[in-house]
Amino acid sequence: MRQIVQFDEHIRQEVAAIECKWEVIANEIFNIYHQKFITFNEDLIIEVIRIQKGKEAAQEDLFTPNYESFLEIGVENGDEYYPNAYIPIWKCKQEMFQKVGYLTRRTISDVGKMLHEMMKEMLEERAENGERYE
Length: 134
Fold this sequence. Notes:
The protein is α+β, with helices and mostly antiparallel strands. The protein is 38% helix and 36% strand. A hairpin with a 2-residue loop joins strand 2 and strand 3 (55-56). Helix 1 runs parallel beside helix 2. The longest helix has 30 residues, at 9-38.
């Protein structure tokens, strides 16, 4: 994670653009793999989450202390949710007397590759555990 102490409009735009790019890649990966998880009676969840103190936040709040955004990957089976991964994008903290931001160094290409690998591993794990296609 890259540490940021100078908050300006350029950084705001950079973080917002990264979050948006991650949403696009999350949707692309979801569209490729969600049907395969349905065959195991599971709903795939891949989404960018924005929270502040555990509550949903707007992208406009990204310079507010305790704002964080991350990509969350998991599956729902019935009423149960099983998280699989959490990949941080941005975190804004109040440290001592100033705000400090932490921004991912991962490129969109890195994230895409990581998600493809993760999906393959999750599907292989289900096949190895003898789960059946419905």
